[in-house]
Amino acid sequence: MSDVNGVTRRAGLRTAGVAAVTLPLFTTASASVLRGRGRRLEVMSFNLRFAGTTGPNSWAARRPVMRELLRREAPTVIGTQEGLYQQLRDIDFDLGARYDWIGTGRAGGSRDEFMAVFYDTRRLAPAEYDHFWLSDTPEVVGSNTWGGSTIRMVTWVRFRDLRDGEREFYLLNTHLDSGNQDARLRSVPLIARRMAGLDPDLPLLTTGDFNAPAHGSAVYDAMLGTGLVDTWDAAAERGAPYGTFHGYRPLVPGGDRIDWILATPGVTVRRARVNTFSRDGQFPSDHLPVQASLTLR
User: What global pTM score does this model have?
Assistant: First the structure.
């Protein structure tokens, strides 16, 4: 397990090993009924919008709405983008003791935005994690060599599923450049090479804000060209489609879905949706989270 620059999993590091979780015993009949439900992962990708003090959408105004949304949905795992260190600690506190997180600042340590991954510790345990930067020098912290508008990176985790026989899967979380199409496109082959270096026998999920619309964009086509499938398209049921970036303006039905959850083939997706939760007109972020309820092969 690699910790490249000292800020991962809350303020202080712990080892990746997690004590075994003792689960209640079920009868054969009840286990059969619950097997499918128990194996299902509730996955979320959420651009948090970095914390700021400017109203009316300051972090102080948004935090209670974010807390309510996340507690209501209780995802198994969340790939987040744009979170700042103290903001992530706030979310960690609001989620409660059952959750933990992995991440590092894209400029190193606690500096700049994180691609943090939150997870339910009752269900998942990290076995390995690392970070790399979307540049010609992916091991160099904070590197940005493709003319991108800012530093971009990937955080990935190999999880053990404590409720599914300790089976493992990967989650990669990223945020592609917002201002440079070339930088976005050059990110895809690097991500593909890194995925190819992981255990090919394990399922893989990719969450992120790709700053490109699903369907009809070169970045989307390139990501699917790596062999991944869009959980939105693969879902047996889908909620109403919305543009996932709204900028605190009225929502756009059928708008561009620039936030995606992708997966290796064989994943069974029961439902996918764009979550439009707000309270008293206040949204938790300038993006809508995307969610998928799925079972790994």
Answer: 0.89
Tokens of 264: 């290796």
For residue 145, which amino acid is it?
T
Q: Residue count of the chain, please give it.
A: 297
Could you write out the DSSP letters of every residue in 151-170? --EEEEEEEEETTTTT-EEE
Instruction: Read off the pLDDT of residues 127-159 as tens digits, 9 standing for 90 and up.
Output: 999 999 999 999 999 999 999 999 999 999 999
Q: Top-level CATH class of 33-295?
A: alpha beta
* Closest among 285, 288, 197, 175 to 241, alpha carbons compared: 288
Q: Where are the chain's structural domains?
A: 33-295
Task: Quote the tokens at residue 111.
Answer: 């500096």
Residues 163, 223 contacting (CB under 8 angstroms):
no
Q: In the block, which residue shows the tokens 């700042």?
A: 84
Residue 235 in contact with residue 269, Cβ under 8 Å? yes
The three-class DSSP label of residue 181 is helix
* Angle, vertex CA 122, rays to CA 244 and CA 79, nearest 5: 20
